[in-house]
Specification:
ABC transporter domain-containing protein, single chain, binds iron/sulfur cluster, 13 strands, 10 helices, binds magnesium ion, ATP-binding, Rossmann fold, ABC_transporter-like_ATP-bd, about 20% strand, alpha/beta, eight-stranded mixed beta sheet, three-stranded antiparallel beta sheet, transport
Length: about 325
Protein backbone atom coordinates (compact mmCIF):
# COMPACT_ATOMS: atom_id res chain seq x y z
CA UNK A 1 0.00 0.00 0.00
CA UNK A 2 1.60 3.26 -1.11
CA UNK A 3 0.50 6.79 -0.38
CA UNK A 4 -3.08 5.67 0.14
CA UNK A 5 -5.61 8.46 0.61
CA UNK A 6 -9.32 8.30 1.14
CA UNK A 7 -11.00 11.70 1.30
CA UNK A 8 -14.69 12.42 1.30
CA UNK A 9 -16.99 15.40 1.67
CA UNK A 10 -18.55 15.80 5.06
CA UNK A 11 -22.14 16.88 5.45
CA UNK A 12 -22.29 18.46 8.85
CA UNK A 13 -25.65 20.22 8.76
CA UNK A 14 -27.09 22.59 6.18
CA UNK A 15 -25.60 25.80 7.57
CA UNK A 16 -21.95 24.82 7.52
CA UNK A 17 -19.87 24.71 4.38
CA UNK A 18 -18.97 21.22 3.33
CA UNK A 19 -15.58 20.14 4.51
CA UNK A 20 -13.19 17.51 3.25
CA UNK A 21 -12.62 14.64 5.66
CA UNK A 22 -9.21 13.08 5.21
CA UNK A 23 -10.18 9.70 6.63
CA UNK A 24 -7.02 8.05 5.34
CA UNK A 25 -4.20 10.43 4.62
CA UNK A 26 -1.08 9.17 2.91
CA UNK A 27 -0.65 5.70 4.35
CA UNK A 28 2.07 3.28 3.22
CA UNK A 29 2.89 -0.20 4.46
CA UNK A 30 3.62 -3.73 3.30
CA UNK A 31 1.93 -6.89 4.52
CA UNK A 32 3.66 -10.23 3.94
CA UNK A 33 2.28 -13.71 3.39
CA UNK A 34 1.42 -15.38 6.68
CA UNK A 35 2.01 -12.21 8.67
CA UNK A 36 -0.19 -10.31 11.11
CA UNK A 37 -0.01 -6.56 10.88
CA UNK A 38 -2.25 -4.74 13.31
CA UNK A 39 -3.71 -1.29 12.76
CA UNK A 40 -4.38 0.30 16.13
CA UNK A 41 -5.92 3.60 17.14
CA UNK A 42 -8.92 5.29 18.70
CA UNK A 43 -12.28 5.18 16.94
CA UNK A 44 -12.43 7.54 13.97
CA UNK A 45 -8.69 7.35 13.24
CA UNK A 46 -9.31 5.74 9.84
CA UNK A 47 -8.32 2.16 10.54
CA UNK A 48 -11.59 0.56 9.34
CA UNK A 49 -11.64 2.84 6.32
CA UNK A 50 -8.08 1.75 5.52
CA UNK A 51 -9.10 -1.93 5.71
CA UNK A 52 -12.17 -1.49 3.52
CA UNK A 53 -10.30 0.67 1.02
CA UNK A 54 -7.60 -1.98 0.65
CA UNK A 55 -10.27 -4.56 -0.19
CA UNK A 56 -11.79 -2.01 -2.55
CA UNK A 57 -15.08 -2.02 -0.70
CA UNK A 58 -14.48 1.75 -0.83
CA UNK A 59 -12.86 3.62 -3.67
CA UNK A 60 -9.65 5.50 -2.93
CA UNK A 61 -8.74 9.10 -3.59
CA UNK A 62 -5.03 8.61 -4.30
CA UNK A 63 -2.18 6.17 -3.91
CA UNK A 64 -1.84 2.54 -4.95
CA UNK A 65 -2.72 -0.91 -3.62
CA UNK A 66 -0.74 -3.85 -4.95
CA UNK A 67 -1.70 -7.44 -4.24
CA UNK A 68 0.91 -10.02 -5.24
CA UNK A 69 2.40 -7.53 -7.66
CA UNK A 70 -0.91 -6.57 -9.26
CA UNK A 71 -2.18 -3.01 -8.98
CA UNK A 72 -5.69 -3.80 -7.80
CA UNK A 73 -6.67 -0.14 -7.71
CA UNK A 74 -6.86 -0.36 -11.50
CA UNK A 75 -8.82 -3.60 -11.84
CA UNK A 76 -12.20 -3.66 -13.53
CA UNK A 77 -15.18 -4.94 -11.58
CA UNK A 78 -15.11 -8.48 -12.94
CA UNK A 79 -11.36 -8.90 -12.36
CA UNK A 80 -11.78 -7.61 -8.85
CA UNK A 81 -14.69 -9.96 -8.24
CA UNK A 82 -12.43 -12.91 -8.98
CA UNK A 83 -9.75 -11.60 -6.65
CA UNK A 84 -12.27 -11.23 -3.81
CA UNK A 85 -11.82 -14.92 -3.13
CA UNK A 86 -8.26 -14.19 -2.05
CA UNK A 87 -9.14 -11.23 0.15
CA UNK A 88 -11.81 -11.65 2.76
CA UNK A 89 -13.13 -9.59 5.62
CA UNK A 90 -14.30 -10.47 9.12
CA UNK A 91 -16.35 -7.79 10.88
CA UNK A 92 -16.79 -6.75 14.48
CA UNK A 93 -20.45 -7.64 14.75
CA UNK A 94 -21.09 -11.15 13.44
CA UNK A 95 -24.81 -10.69 14.02
CA UNK A 96 -24.98 -7.82 11.57
CA UNK A 97 -22.77 -9.54 9.00
CA UNK A 98 -24.69 -12.86 8.94
CA UNK A 99 -28.02 -12.98 7.13
CA UNK A 100 -30.61 -13.80 9.86
CA UNK A 101 -32.86 -15.59 7.36
CA UNK A 102 -30.24 -18.09 6.29
CA UNK A 103 -29.05 -21.25 7.97
CA UNK A 104 -25.39 -21.97 8.58
CA UNK A 105 -25.51 -24.41 5.69
CA UNK A 106 -26.76 -21.68 3.33
CA UNK A 107 -24.37 -19.08 4.71
CA UNK A 108 -21.35 -21.29 4.08
CA UNK A 109 -22.50 -22.74 0.75
CA UNK A 110 -23.06 -19.31 -0.75
CA UNK A 111 -19.43 -18.16 -1.18
CA UNK A 112 -18.52 -21.54 -2.70
CA UNK A 113 -21.33 -21.23 -5.22
CA UNK A 114 -20.65 -17.57 -6.00
CA UNK A 115 -17.00 -18.32 -6.72
CA UNK A 116 -17.71 -21.62 -8.47
CA UNK A 117 -15.57 -23.69 -6.11
CA UNK A 118 -15.98 -27.47 -6.26
CA UNK A 119 -18.81 -29.48 -7.78
CA UNK A 120 -22.25 -28.92 -6.26
CA UNK A 121 -22.04 -32.42 -4.79
CA UNK A 122 -18.71 -31.71 -3.03
CA UNK A 123 -19.67 -28.42 -1.46
CA UNK A 124 -21.62 -29.74 1.49
CA UNK A 125 -18.60 -31.81 2.48
CA UNK A 126 -16.44 -28.68 2.39
CA UNK A 127 -18.97 -26.81 4.51
CA UNK A 128 -18.94 -29.58 7.13
CA UNK A 129 -15.16 -29.68 7.18
CA UNK A 130 -14.80 -25.92 7.72
CA UNK A 131 -17.50 -25.94 10.37
CA UNK A 132 -15.43 -28.52 12.19
CA UNK A 133 -12.23 -26.51 11.66
CA UNK A 134 -13.78 -23.52 13.44
CA UNK A 135 -14.93 -25.76 16.27
CA UNK A 136 -18.65 -26.19 15.56
CA UNK A 137 -20.36 -29.58 15.34
CA UNK A 138 -22.23 -30.74 12.27
CA UNK A 139 -25.62 -30.67 13.97
CA UNK A 140 -25.46 -26.84 13.87
CA UNK A 141 -25.83 -26.89 10.06
CA UNK A 142 -29.51 -26.08 9.92
CA UNK A 143 -29.63 -23.49 12.67
CA UNK A 144 -30.04 -19.76 12.17
CA UNK A 145 -27.62 -17.07 13.44
CA UNK A 146 -29.85 -16.05 16.36
CA UNK A 147 -29.57 -19.57 17.80
CA UNK A 148 -25.87 -19.08 18.50
CA UNK A 149 -23.83 -17.19 21.06
CA UNK A 150 -21.73 -14.21 19.97
CA UNK A 151 -18.55 -16.29 19.95
CA UNK A 152 -20.17 -19.05 17.88
CA UNK A 153 -21.48 -16.49 15.42
CA UNK A 154 -18.00 -15.09 14.98
CA UNK A 155 -16.78 -18.65 14.33
CA UNK A 156 -19.39 -18.95 11.57
CA UNK A 157 -18.29 -15.61 10.08
CA UNK A 158 -14.67 -16.80 10.20
CA UNK A 159 -15.62 -20.09 8.54
CA UNK A 160 -17.36 -18.15 5.78
CA UNK A 161 -14.18 -16.12 5.20
CA UNK A 162 -11.68 -19.00 5.28
CA UNK A 163 -13.74 -21.52 3.29
CA UNK A 164 -12.54 -19.67 0.18
CA UNK A 165 -8.91 -20.27 1.24
CA UNK A 166 -8.02 -16.59 0.95
CA UNK A 167 -4.50 -15.20 1.29
CA UNK A 168 -5.50 -12.07 3.15
CA UNK A 169 -8.11 -11.47 5.81
CA UNK A 170 -8.94 -8.00 7.02
CA UNK A 171 -10.30 -8.56 10.53
CA UNK A 172 -12.00 -5.41 11.80
CA UNK A 173 -12.28 -5.57 15.61
CA UNK A 174 -13.19 -9.28 15.34
CA UNK A 175 -13.35 -9.83 19.11
CA UNK A 176 -14.43 -6.41 20.41
CA UNK A 177 -18.09 -7.40 20.69
CA UNK A 178 -17.31 -10.63 22.56
CA UNK A 179 -17.00 -11.42 26.26
CA UNK A 180 -13.43 -11.35 27.51
CA UNK A 181 -13.49 -15.12 28.14
CA UNK A 182 -14.53 -15.79 24.54
CA UNK A 183 -12.11 -13.28 23.01
CA UNK A 184 -9.04 -15.43 23.58
CA UNK A 185 -10.76 -18.51 22.12
CA UNK A 186 -11.58 -16.67 18.92
CA UNK A 187 -8.08 -15.19 18.75
CA UNK A 188 -6.58 -18.64 19.21
CA UNK A 189 -8.77 -19.90 16.39
CA UNK A 190 -7.55 -17.09 14.12
CA UNK A 191 -3.92 -17.93 14.97
CA UNK A 192 -4.46 -21.64 14.34
CA UNK A 193 -6.07 -20.91 10.96
CA UNK A 194 -3.24 -18.57 10.08
CA UNK A 195 -0.74 -21.38 10.58
CA UNK A 196 -2.76 -23.96 8.69
CA UNK A 197 -3.67 -21.76 5.75
CA UNK A 198 -0.69 -19.38 5.75
CA UNK A 199 -3.05 -16.40 5.99
CA UNK A 200 -1.99 -12.79 6.21
CA UNK A 201 -4.05 -10.74 8.64
CA UNK A 202 -4.63 -7.05 8.69
CA UNK A 203 -5.95 -6.95 12.23
CA UNK A 204 -7.82 -3.80 13.18
CA UNK A 205 -8.28 -2.94 16.85
CA UNK A 206 -8.71 0.02 19.17
CA UNK A 207 -6.94 -1.96 21.89
CA UNK A 208 -3.16 -2.25 21.87
CA UNK A 209 -3.42 -4.83 24.67
CA UNK A 210 -5.46 -7.19 22.47
CA UNK A 211 -2.99 -7.12 19.58
CA UNK A 212 0.19 -7.31 21.64
CA UNK A 213 0.61 -11.08 21.45
CA UNK A 214 -0.85 -11.80 18.04
CA UNK A 215 0.93 -9.21 15.89
CA UNK A 216 4.17 -9.55 14.02
CA UNK A 217 4.12 -5.82 13.46
CA UNK A 218 1.90 -3.01 14.67
CA UNK A 219 0.98 0.29 13.03
CA UNK A 220 -0.42 2.99 15.28
CA UNK A 221 -2.85 5.40 13.60
CA UNK A 222 -3.93 8.88 14.58
CA UNK A 223 -6.32 11.02 12.53
CA UNK A 224 -5.88 9.19 9.26
CA UNK A 225 -2.13 8.67 9.45
CA UNK A 226 0.24 5.97 10.60
CA UNK A 227 2.29 7.73 13.25
CA UNK A 228 4.44 4.74 14.18
CA UNK A 229 5.08 1.27 12.77
CA UNK A 230 7.35 -1.38 14.29
CA UNK A 231 7.74 -5.03 15.15
CA UNK A 232 5.35 -5.77 18.00
CA UNK A 233 8.02 -6.50 20.59
CA UNK A 234 10.00 -3.45 19.67
CA UNK A 235 6.93 -1.22 19.77
CA UNK A 236 6.21 -2.25 23.33
CA UNK A 237 9.83 -2.24 24.45
CA UNK A 238 10.79 1.07 22.88
CA UNK A 239 7.80 3.11 21.68
CA UNK A 240 8.96 6.32 20.02
CA UNK A 241 5.87 8.37 19.26
CA UNK A 242 4.35 10.22 22.24
CA UNK A 243 0.91 8.94 21.21
CA UNK A 244 2.09 5.32 21.20
CA UNK A 245 3.74 5.90 24.57
CA UNK A 246 0.45 7.12 26.02
CA UNK A 247 -1.50 4.16 24.57
CA UNK A 248 0.97 1.68 26.04
CA UNK A 249 0.89 3.43 29.41
CA UNK A 250 -2.92 3.06 29.44
CA UNK A 251 -2.86 -0.76 29.19
CA UNK A 252 -3.83 -2.16 32.60
CA UNK A 253 -0.86 -3.63 34.46
CA UNK A 254 -0.90 -7.31 35.25
CA UNK A 255 0.62 -6.99 38.71
CA UNK A 256 -0.67 -4.46 41.20
CA UNK A 257 2.87 -3.58 42.29
CA UNK A 258 3.92 -2.63 38.77
CA UNK A 259 4.50 1.07 38.55
CA UNK A 260 1.52 2.88 37.09
CA UNK A 261 3.11 5.63 35.08
CA UNK A 262 0.09 6.34 32.94
CA UNK A 263 0.43 9.26 30.56
CA UNK A 264 -2.88 11.12 30.50
CA UNK A 265 -3.55 13.07 27.30
CA UNK A 266 -5.42 16.34 27.40
CA UNK A 267 -8.56 16.70 25.33
CA UNK A 268 -10.25 14.34 22.91
CA UNK A 269 -9.38 13.24 19.42
CA UNK A 270 -10.17 16.25 17.18
CA UNK A 271 -12.65 15.92 14.33
CA UNK A 272 -11.06 14.51 11.17
CA UNK A 273 -12.99 17.15 9.19
CA UNK A 274 -11.06 19.88 10.95
CA UNK A 275 -7.70 18.45 12.00
CA UNK A 276 -5.12 20.61 13.80
CA UNK A 277 -2.35 22.23 11.77
CA UNK A 278 1.20 20.88 11.75
CA UNK A 279 1.41 17.59 13.62
CA UNK A 280 -2.26 16.65 14.12
CA UNK A 281 -1.38 15.33 17.58
CA UNK A 282 0.17 18.61 18.78
CA UNK A 283 -2.75 19.95 20.89
CA UNK A 284 -2.58 16.77 23.02
CA UNK A 285 1.13 16.01 22.92
CA UNK A 286 3.10 16.19 26.18
CA UNK A 287 6.31 16.77 24.15
CA UNK A 288 5.00 19.46 21.80
CA UNK A 289 7.54 21.93 20.38
CA UNK A 290 7.07 25.16 18.43
CA UNK A 291 7.67 23.51 15.06
CA UNK A 292 4.91 20.95 15.71
CA UNK A 293 2.20 23.60 15.57
CA UNK A 294 2.76 24.55 11.95
CA UNK A 295 4.84 21.83 10.26
CA UNK A 296 3.71 18.28 9.65
CA UNK A 297 6.49 15.88 10.66
CA UNK A 298 8.04 13.62 7.98
CA UNK A 299 8.19 9.83 8.32
CA UNK A 300 11.53 8.98 9.90
CA UNK A 301 13.13 5.57 9.29
CA UNK A 302 14.75 4.13 12.41
CA UNK A 303 16.34 0.68 12.74
CA UNK A 304 14.62 -2.67 11.96
CA UNK A 305 11.96 -1.14 9.76
CA UNK A 306 10.73 0.95 12.68
CA UNK A 307 9.21 4.19 11.40
CA UNK A 308 7.86 7.20 13.28
CA UNK A 309 6.21 10.42 12.20
CA UNK A 310 7.39 12.93 14.81
CA UNK A 311 9.67 15.97 14.93
CA UNK A 312 11.46 14.60 18.00
CA UNK A 313 13.35 12.24 15.70
CA UNK A 314 14.29 14.81 13.07
CA UNK A 315 17.49 16.78 13.36
CA UNK A 316 15.88 20.12 12.77
CA UNK A 317 18.13 23.06 13.57
CA UNK A 318 15.30 24.24 15.85
CA UNK A 319 15.24 20.97 17.74
CA UNK A 320 18.91 20.79 18.63
FE1 LIG B 1 4.39 15.62 19.64
FE2 LIG B 1 5.60 17.27 17.96
FE3 LIG B 1 6.05 14.65 17.82
FE4 LIG B 1 3.71 15.66 17.07
S1 LIG B 1 5.67 16.03 16.11
S2 LIG B 1 4.03 13.87 18.31
S3 LIG B 1 3.44 17.31 18.55
S4 LIG B 1 6.58 16.02 19.50
MG1 LIG C 1 -13.96 0.97 13.09
Amino acid sequence: VRGLKKYYESNQGWAKPKGIVKAVDDISFALYRGETLSLVGESGCGKSTTGKTILRLYGHTAGSIHFEGQDIGQLAYEEMRQLRREMQMVFQDPFASLNPKKTVRQILLEPLRVHGIGQASERLGMVKRFLEIVGLAEYHLDKYPHEFSGGQRQRIAIARAVILKPKLIVADEPVSALDISVQSQVINLLLQLQKELNLAYLFISHDLGVVKHISDRIAVMYLGRIVELAEAEELFAAPKHPYTQSLISAIPKRHPDEKNDRIILKGDVPSPSNPPTGCAFHPRCPMVMAICEHTSPPVMQLENGHTVRCHLYVDHPKNV
